[in-house]
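thread: overnight batch results

M.L. [08:02]
morning all. the overnight job finished for the chain we discussed friday. pasting input first so we're all looking at the same thing
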Amino acid sequence: MRILVTGATGYIGKRIIPLLLDQGHTVVCAVRGKLRTEKAYSDEENLHVVEADFLKPDTLQNIPKDIDAAYYLIHSMSNSVDKFHKLEEECALNFKNYIETTNVKQVIYLSGITNDTKLSKHLLSRKNVEDTLKSNVYALTVFKAGIIVGSGSASFEIIRDLVEKLPIMIAPKWLNTKTQPIGVRDVLAFLTKGLGKQELYNTSHDIFGPEIMTYKQMLLQFADIRKLKRYIITVPVMTPKLSSYWLYFVTSTSYKLASSLVNSMGIEIIGEKSNINQFLDIKPITYKEAVKVAFAKIEGNEIVSSWKDAFISSRNKKRVSTKYLKVPKFGCFKDIKERRVKDENRTLEKIWAIGGENGWYYGTTLWKIRGYLDKLVGGIGLRRGRTNKTDIKTGDALDFWRVLLADKEQKRLILFAEMKLPGEAWLEFQVAKGKVYQRATFRPRGLWGRLYWYSVLPFHGFIFNGMINKLANA
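M.L. [08:03]
and the structure it wrote out:
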């Protein structure tokens, strides 16, 4: 099938594209700015990128007419709280008007569960979009999900921020609101298995996990999986605005997103049962299982990929684990440096020879001390060295790092720390346009992780400066 994916650069869009490609479909991605996206997909024969802004109807002519199905994954949650519902309705109407002129037989829309008569602006907007998308020309299939649990999702990262930052939480009363979370892998299963099923034409189904939980229970179970003792005290005095500021200042989210989430979290969202699980042969996993799967991704270094779900087949793992590899940004500390280089090839060769007997080019004694400290607490230290003095391959051990990406064509090297740390750490090198870029990223775990980062910050100042200067002057 030839399938249109809107919202292709969003959380679900990025994950569903490789699944569709893996199933043998041809995918057309509609994005507002195609240059960067087109470059990322340059060697995908069955993927085409078109530039289309659904707030500008004239740009929709770039979408081909010969498409069989479409995914509507456009959401404006982080836009202006006061007008996002108008923008969403306008996008949906423009999409519908154009898609009715194509060969599309089925449109699949991912919405939110809206079974309560009192809806937040966000959920009311999604219901309004569903009504707008209904058509006499094509069939509409709607899947309504609750809180989506998966590495990189807004809800997952906000919960992680709260749990890992705050041993004691004085929290708003909406933490006692009940909801029905669902794992992202199950959401993707519903979206892909529902494609082309005529029995689902012009139907709507709530999709949710097997448990009804409060947000407080979600936080405590998350803490239990992370082996962190947390205490939560809910107070009735926080207004929605005050709650939004609380979420904004405590976590890494934006205020607009925090406000949208708070408005939704104050309303109980329980899914309406149907036979959709049996019909599509899907058995959703529990909340704890979904969180464990997410951390398995993080610990297996798959979280750094733009495609973060486990549905990828083995023959596509190279595509998933190398080409689209990106270091996380959410809730991370960063040390980013760049220098002009005298000779790009010489600098690249020096990067490819880093570690082992060659050392780290600056502050060698301090690197050795860090290795000894790691061994004292049961870590691997620097004893692994490297397997080859001049060559590095993806998957290699390199001192107390693991090579996630070694691509000389891209001129990129990404390392993941396997030393004992109160968090996760990445070290990335890239040579491009006459410069060398060096990025150290640390995702702290709890209070100790933050204290660790600030305690080593003074050493980073001259170690990382010295290292990049040596690389630049190669």
